[in-house]
């Protein structure tokens, strides 16, 4: 299992709006019949303020490309993401392999 973390640094005061948009994106993914991966949304409680993280849980790197195609070709996701982009100062992506679950 691999966790893909999209880390967004939002502009000052834009967290509430950014979280609302990502909740809409996650709901749209859940409602669609597309084979989207399990996802979760995290926001900062400490550390760098106005940080929003979207985690995707995928089985392997082989499952990553179909997931990216879904996001890139679904109009609802594209429209919501276009609303989100102006709220960001920066973004990064991290990949983690789950080594053990207790």
What would the CATH topology be? Alpha-Beta Plaits
Strand proportion: 25-35%
What is the domain tally? 1
Structural class: alpha+beta
Along the chain, the helix and strand elements come as EHEEHHE
Description:
A four-stranded antiparallel β-sheet has the order 2-3-1-4, with helices on one face. It has one domain: Alpha-Beta Plaits, CATH 3.30.70.100. The longest helix is centred in the N-terminal third of the chain and has 17 residues. Helix 1 packs antiparallel against helix 3. It is 36% helix and 32% strand.
Give a topology summary.
Blueprint: E1 2-10, H1 15-31, E2 38-43, E3 51-58, H2 64-73, H3 75-84, E4 88-97
Antiparallel strand pairs: 1-3, 1-4, 2-3
Helix pairs in contact: 1-3
Question: Can you summarize this structure?
Answer:
Helices cover 36% and strands 32% of the residues. By secondary structure, it is an alpha+beta fold.
For this entry, give a set of tags.
single chain; 102 residues; alpha+beta; Alpha-Beta Plaits; 4-stranded antiparallel beta sheet
